[in-house]
């Protein structure tokens, strides 16, 4: 056990520990109130305090999960690059993914904190800049073969020198983006946030003394380390492993790309091994450098211990082996990684949720929907001179069902729980788009004894646009959001262009630079969360209430849950369960559902193309994955998806409704 010693009196220590959280939250408020871009206004930012070594003293109370675990890396990169050439009034900018960043859009402003010429630490404000150049608006270029196609790589660079703003440096950076005014405005807002932190730390020094503040920086990290070690030590030792998937490597044909996570608890420490993941970076931007993968490890683990503050003390307990450089989870220069958040990041997080469900079953949660980014940019025909516009949209969706509770619907992604839902009025004012549909998507919640949360269907029509293109960064078009302990999957992600019209096209979940015209309709769903527990064990009356609420259709109530619901008065939302027919239907499903997963996949796909079966039938009943536009079977992907269902779902069928877990079925390997 760690020998934690606190030389401060308990009251002073507690006051300072909470003061540091408050300072970082003040930084967040400063950014929120003074930023220029709609993306950062929608809270895609995070902040931190670091000590003189670059180690994190404290994160804020509402930071983006993907930024957690990376801000100390970029702070250390500034220290390493400038060493003794750091002075009061200096401010640095960095977004380099190969020096601990996440992707190039996440740009960090780092300010050294001095008190009477003594360096105490650093304050850091990270914001997602809507565009950092590159080949496509928004800088999310699916077709990038290296990072040069993704935009501006900013190695640690001084942008204020001893309090003087270096106009030439700021102009150089902003001029390589499509929204230079936003970039300058956001950079100034982030810099001012770091100044707020400097001001507050100096105020605390004057109140409590320099030695007390310097000592407390280390003590709050030791406190978090000790608290985390104590919690881990209470847990059973062992080794557990699982895997999740990225949809495809475009250069290798169809087939899921494995992300393998092995977790070891030994005494007071937790160690993760990702070295058996796909050994090569894939030929799209769904790769992660070490910073992005480590952030996923930290964020996924931290969610198991919500009461513990987060700083570098936590990182002393949680370690990771990413394996050799060059893999999909440990990409090296010059691999493109702009889509890390939709690729390895959320696969790692959901895998961690599954592993910890073995240890802390009360916190169990099935897979959540995958973060998506829709980026449309070009010239705005409403503006004089057809000025550039950038519309940057992300969706809410369904979280996985939990042990004893249904999942949350229309919620931000686990990637960034604090992400705000962007108001449509703001989007329509800033870009030539009009939202025509935004509603909960019936049947999108993964069926289970506890149902996954619902996703959302959103559609927009492009109004007066010129030279505009659309790009989309997502995943789980094929590695569908999965259920836990016998629960069923949700639905695939993917964008439709002009759906329902003669010229409709399914664009998929990963593409760049597709041309748009005025009047085009762009629509997409967000998946719901996976279900938890056998759907046939769900109380029929709860299924009936889901039908009345519009969460589940009458048809899928019968097909997915084996519950026969009859309409009494649709206008009054009155429905009833036919108990005798339900018993008969559930008996039929139990007798046949295992063999459905072994039916000839091509014949199932043919029935989909003929419209005899729908998308939900293929995913939930037959485990068949097709090209959702053309209906062509994806045989390798189907084999992998079926194997996943037979591992995650089938062994738990027909278990007790009071406890869907079975101790004989485990992810424990040692």
Residue-averaged pLDDT: 94
Distance between the termini: 23 Å
- Please report the total strand number as a whole number: 22
Structural class: alpha+beta
Count of separate DSSP helical elements: 16
Into which percent range does the helicity of residues fall? Answer: 25-40%
Q: Which percent range describes the beta-strand content?
A: 15-25%
Largest sheet, spatial ordering of strands: 2-1-5-4-3-6-7
Shape, per Cα inertia axes: globular
Low-confidence sequence ranges: none
Major beta sheet, specifics?
7 strands, antiparallel
As a whole number of angstroms, the C-alpha radius of gyration is 25 Å
Keywords:
single chain, 670 residues, alpha+beta, seven-stranded antiparallel beta sheet, five-stranded antiparallel beta sheet, 21% strand, Hydantoinase_B, Oxoprolinase-like, Hydantoinase B/oxoprolinase family protein
What does this structure look like?
- With 670 residues, this protein is of the alpha+beta class.
- Helices cover 32% and strands 21% of the residues.
- It contains 16 helices and 22 strands.
- The strands form five sheets. The chain has a seven-stranded antiparallel β-sheet, with helices on both faces.
- Helix 1 (10-34) packs antiparallel against helix 5 (180-208) and helix 7 (290-302) packs parallel to helix 9 (341-359).
Which secondary structure elements does this structure contain, and how are they paired or packed?
Layout: H1 10-34, H2 38-41, E1 45-51, E2 56-59, H3 71-82, E3 91-94, E4 106-115, E5 118-128, E6 157-161, E7 164-165, H4 167-174, H5 180-208, H6 210-233, E8 238-248, E9 254-266, E10 269-273, H7 290-302, H8 312-315, E11 318-321, H9 341-359, E12 373-380, E13 388-393, H10 424-430, E14 433-440, E15 456-462, E16 465-473, E17 495-497, E18 505-508, E19 510-516, E20 521-525, H11 540-549, H12 554-561, E21 565-569, E22 574-577, H13 579-596, H14 601-609, H15 615-622, H16 635-648
Parallel strand pairs: 10-11
Antiparallel strand pairs: 1-2, 1-5, 3-4, 3-6, 4-5, 6-7, 8-9, 9-10, 12-13, 12-16, 14-15, 15-20, 16-19, 17-18, 17-20, 21-22
């Amino acid at each position: 056990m760690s020998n934690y010693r606190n030389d401060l009196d308990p009251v002073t220590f507690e006051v300072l520990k909470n003061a540091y959280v408050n300072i970082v939250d003040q930084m967040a408020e400063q950014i929120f109130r003074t930023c220029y871009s709609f993306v950062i206004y929608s809270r895609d930012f995070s902040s931190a305090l670091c000590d003189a070594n670059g180690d994190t003293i404290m994160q804020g109370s509402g930071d983006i999960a993907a930024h957690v675990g990376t801000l100390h890396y970029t702070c250390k990169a500034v220290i390493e690059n400038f060493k003794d050439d750091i002075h009061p009034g200096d401010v640095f900018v960095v977004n380099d993914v190969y020096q601990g960043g996440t992707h190039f859009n996440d740009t960090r402003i780092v300010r050294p904190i001095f008190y009477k010429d003594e360096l105490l630490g650093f304050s850091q404000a990270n914001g997602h800049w809507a565009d950092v150049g590159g080949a496509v608006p928004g800088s999310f270029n699916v077709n990038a073969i290296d990072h040069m196609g993704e935009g501006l790589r900013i190695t640690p660079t001084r942008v204020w020198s001893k309090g003087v703003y270096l106009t030439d440096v700021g102009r150089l950076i902003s001029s390589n983006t499509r929204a230079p005014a936003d970039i300058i405005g956001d950079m100034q807002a982030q810099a001012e946030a770091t100044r707020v932190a400097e001001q507050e730390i100096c105020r605390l020094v004057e109140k409590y003394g320099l030695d007390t503040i310097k000592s407390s920086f280390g003590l709050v990290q030791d406190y978090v380390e000790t608290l985390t070690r104590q919690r881990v030590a209470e847990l059973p030792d062992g080794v557990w492993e699982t895997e999740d998937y990225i949809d495809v490597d475009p250069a290798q044909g169809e087939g899921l790309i494995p992300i393998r996570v092995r977790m070891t608890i030994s005494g007071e420490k937790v160690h993760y091994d990702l070295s058996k993941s796909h050994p090569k970076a894939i030929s799209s931007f769904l790769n992660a450098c070490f910073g992005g993968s480590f952030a996923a490890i930290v964020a996924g683990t931290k969610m198991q211990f919500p009461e513990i503050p987060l700083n570098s003390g936590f990182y002393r307990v949680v370690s990771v082996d990413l394996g050799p450089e060059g893999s999909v989870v440990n990409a090296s220069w010059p691999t493109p990684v702009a889509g890390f958040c939709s690729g390895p990041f959320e696969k790692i997080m959901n895998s961690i949720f599954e592993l910890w469900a073995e240890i802390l079953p009360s916190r169990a949660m099935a897979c959540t929907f995958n973060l998506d980014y829709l980026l449309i940019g070009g010239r705005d025909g409403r503006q004089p001179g057809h000025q550039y516009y950038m519309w940057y949209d992300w969706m809410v969706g369904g979280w996985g069902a939990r042990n004893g509770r249904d999942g949350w619907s229309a919620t931000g992604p686990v990637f960034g729980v604090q992400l705000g839902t962007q108001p449509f009025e703001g989007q329509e004012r800033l870009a030539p788009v009009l939202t025509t549909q935004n509603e909960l998507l019936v049947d999108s919640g993964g069926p289970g004894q506890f149902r996954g949360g619902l996703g959302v269907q959103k559609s927009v029509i492009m109004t007066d646009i010129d030279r505009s293109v659309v790009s989309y960064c997502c995943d789980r078009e094929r590695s569908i959001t999965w259920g836990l302990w016998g629960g069923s999957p949700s639905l695939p992600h993917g964008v439709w262009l002009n759906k329902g019209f003669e010229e409709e096209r399914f664009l998929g979940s990963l593409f760049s630079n597709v041309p748009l015209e005025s009047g085009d309709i762009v629509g997409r769903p967000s998946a719901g969360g996976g279900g938890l527990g056998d759907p046939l064990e769900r109380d029929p009356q709860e299924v009936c209430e889901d039908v009345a609420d519009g969460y589940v259709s009458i048809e899928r109530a019968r097909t997915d849950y084996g519950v026969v619901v009859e309409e009494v008065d649709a206008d009054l939302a009155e429905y009833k369960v036919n108990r005798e027919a339900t018993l008969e239907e559930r008996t039929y499903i139990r007798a046949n559902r295992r063999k459905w997963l072994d039916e000839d996949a091509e014949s199932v796909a043919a029935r989909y193309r003929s419209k005899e079966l729908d998308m939900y039938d293929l995913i939930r009943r037959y485990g068949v994955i097709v090209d959702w536009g053309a209906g062509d079977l994806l045989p390798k992907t189907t084999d992998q998806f079926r194997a996943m269902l037979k591992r995650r779902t089938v062994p738990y069928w027909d278990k007790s409704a009071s406890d869907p877990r079975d101790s004989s079925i485990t992810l424990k390997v040692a």
